[in-house]
């Protein structure tokens, strides 16, 4: 298993509290017009969300790898890996609530989201539980600093497949919290809002980011 997959999974697992906060109202939106909401809706919705993550990861990873290969820039991926390490540090600061600078990056996606979100709203009310899959696919493009940070790792993954797997690992990390939220559980949400939990997770991500950044700097210095 690639260390980047593990790192992406940890981002999703530790940062899922942020996802729950952003997507908390979606669970109620999915039940609009349904007298007896199906318990499979959260599963279908999150399946669509993970598919969207894997797709954008494949697009970003494949595009950057192709450009790097065509341009013969041997150091390009190393520089991008250094940038990914910086994003990891910013993400650690955000999760630990030490500095909220990552929100500025999150806002960059608002313009695109204004064009995408009507497509998701047009699917409501859901005609059947399985229609939650395309709804989740669209809502996976919701502007999110965690997603953008993880995408930087997809960009340096070296291929479309690795980019997709990194984003899928991130999505799997968010899955437990998102499914429990969909089924009405609150304990995990309280745990992830704990400052001790957030600080511990932020320190893990910070260490990983600094380690990756150090490795990139070493590679650049000897190239």
From TrEMBL:
Keyword rRNA-binding: no
Lineage top rank: taxon: Bacteria
Keyword Transmembrane helix: yes
Urease accessory protein UreH-like transmembrane domain location: 8-210
Entries under Pfam families matching the protein: DsbD_2 (PF13386)
Regions crossing the membrane: 6-30, 50-67, 79-99, 130-151, 163-188, 200-222
Keyword annotations of the record: Membrane, Transmembrane, Transmembrane helix
Entry-linked InterPro entries: UreH-like_TM_dom
Protein name: Sulfite exporter TauE/SafE family protein
């Amino acid at each position: 298993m690639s260390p980047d997959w593990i790192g992406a999974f940890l981002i999703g697992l530790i940062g899922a509290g942020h996802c729950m906060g952003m997507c908390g109202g979606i669970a109620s939106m999915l039940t609009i017009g349904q007298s007896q909401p199906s318990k499979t809706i959260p599963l279908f919705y999150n399946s669509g969300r993970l598919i969207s993550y894997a797709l954008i990861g494949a697009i970003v990873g494949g595009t950057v790898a192709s450009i790097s290969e065509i341009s013969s820039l041997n150091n390009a991926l190393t520089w991008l890996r250094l940038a990914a390490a910086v994003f990891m540090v910013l993400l650690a600061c955000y999760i630990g609530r030490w500095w909220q600078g990552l929100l500025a990056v999150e806002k960059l996606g608002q313009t695109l989201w204004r064009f995408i979100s009507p497509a998701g709203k047009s699917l409501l009310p859901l005609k059947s539980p399985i229609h939650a899959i395309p709804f989740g696919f669209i809502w996976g493009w919701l502007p999110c600093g965690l997603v953008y940070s993880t995408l930087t790792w997809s960009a340096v993954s070296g291929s479309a497949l690795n980019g997709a797997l990194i984003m899928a690992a991130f999505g799997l990390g968010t899955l437990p919290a998102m499914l429990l939220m969909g089924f009405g559980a609150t304990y995990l949400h309280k745990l992830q809002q704990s400052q001790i939990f957030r600080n511990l997770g932020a320190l893990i991500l910070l260490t990983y980011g600094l380690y990756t950044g150090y490795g990139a700097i070493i590679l650049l210095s000897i190239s």
